[in-house]
Specification:
4 domains, Immunoglobulin-like, five-stranded mixed beta sheet
């Protein structure tokens, strides 16, 4: 009612925009102070470019305002935005083709922001003018944790812990603070922020079985167990190839060598082996494969010393397992010099013969454990007669009288020799 007359206005009238006033607006202020708002029975619908934001993130908010016939409200219609968390800028925006736009900025606090758009008497229906945006840790629906790798070696090691924070729709949530906890070992950092994929990472260094969890907001992951892998185990023993004794005091044989039997075993409880190499310690080695049978016996000949000092060797077995872990075991082989050899000579005269007098000579080898290592005996009877025998007993007939020096030489198959002499006096009948 103005000056006794009644005026009816509608949003579709051709009146200037300033005559569409709020319920509290007056004409006294003129067009400079009046706001254009949505008319009665208009509808307003709000939407957001994204419904999940990290702390400090931002997204565009759009309010769609339509009059009752479904046509956009007049350009410049004012829409007010309010939020329960963060900020909206501008708080009041004007429509263009029925759409008013603003930017919602999430702050440092996590939670659910309820953003509402209003304009005059426009109705939002069943919360059509309300949009909810989940901010920060509040957006995390589940958090999972994994370790890469899932175990450390027998002497300990470091693994990477990867926590994945995802929303209800399975999208990774960025910018969420994740807190890691462990019952053993040391964490590289107890907290980390999720990246654009929703992953937060840290490291764990441990030498024993460890349980780790991750927490983001109100969500806690299932505990992940980092185990300690069994390492490779090998053992080596040494024994003379024949006879008794041990490899710490072998006697060089006639060929100035000693043959041993090296046995490599894989004890129970160790990891699966990939490769085993036996190094004899004398420049030679042999590959034993993965020792699938559990053990391997290898015969090897070690050279004896050239002098009187024993010669030592270190036989080493090295094993690599399928996890890249390595171990070794060793044993010592000591070869003593060949025993000193000698020979003694005994003589005895017999009844004279028609041609002269017969003598019997007996040579006895000294320091020779195995008679089979004797090659021959060489005899010099002192009367320009030499013979060779395979054993240490021989006889000789002297046809002249006199004093004779008899020499016997013991010849070994390895080239060593030893000699003995004796003098005899021959008196013919």
């Amino acid at each position: 009612m103005l000056m006794g007359r009644t005026f009816n206005f509608s949003a579709s009238s051709m009146w200037p925009a300033c005559v569409l006033l709020t319920a509290t607006a007056t004409l006294a202020g003129g067009c400079d102070t009046a706001q254009l708002v949505a008319p009665t029975r208009s509808t307003i619908t709000i939407s957001a470019a994204t419904r999940i934001l990290s702390n400090g993130g931002a997204t565009e908010i759009s309010a769609y305002v339509l009059e009752e016939p479904g046509t956009p409200v007049q350009n410049g219609t004012s829409v007010r935005f309010t939020t329960t968390l963060g900020t909206v800028n501008p708080e009041n925006a004007q429509t263009h083709n029925g759409v008013a736009r603003a930017i919602f900025s999430a702050g440092s606090s996590s939670g659910i922001a309820e953003i509402r758009a209003t304009s005059g008497s426009a109705s939002g229906g069943t919360d059509l003018n309300l949009v909810r945006i989940t901010v920060g840790a509040a957006a995390v629906s589940t958090i999972s944790l994994r370790a890469n790798p899932g175990s450390v070696g027998p002497s300990g090691g470091t693994v990477e812990l990867i926590a994945s924070a995802v929303s209800e729709n399975g999208q990774g949530v960025e910018g969420v603070l994740v807190t890691f906890s462990t019952d053993q070992g040391t964490l590289g950092s107890s907290t980390a922020m999720t990246n654009p994929a929703g992953e937060a990472r840290t490291t764990l260094t441990t030498g024993q079985e460890t349980n780790v969890t991750a927490v983001a907001g109100t969500k806690t992951s299932v505990a992940v167990k980092v185990t300690v892998r069994a390492g490779p185990i090998v053992a080596i023993t040494c024994a003379p190839a024949s006879g008794t004794g041990n490899c710490a005091g072998l006697q060089a044989t006639a060929g100035n060598s000693a043959i041993v039997l090296l046995t490599v075993t894989k004890p129970t409880g160790g990891s699966n082996l990939r490769n085993v190499v036996l190094d004899f310690g004398d420049g030679e080695s042999v590959n034993l494969g993965n020792l699938a049978s559990g053990s391997a016996a290898v015969s090897h000949s070690y050279a004896g010393p050239s002098g009187s000092t024993p010669r030592s060797y270190t036989a080493t077995v090295r094993a690599d397992d399928v996890n890249g872990e390595s171990t070794s075991a060793a044993t010592t082989v000591v070869v003593a010099p060949r025993s000193a050899i000698g020979v003694s000579l005994a003589s005895a005269s017999e009844t004279a013969t028609v041609a002269g007098q017969r003598w019997t000579f007996t040579a006895t080898a000294i320091g020779v454990a195995d008679p089979g290592t004797i090659q021959s005996y060489s005899w010099d009877f002192g009367d320009d007669v030499d013979v060779t025998t395979s054993n240490g007993v021989t006889s000789h007939v002297y046809t002249e009288e006199g004093k004779f020096t008899v020499t016997v030489t013991l010849n070994m198959v390895d080239g060593r020799t030893a000699s003995a002499t004796t003098e005899i006096l021959v008196n013919l009948p």
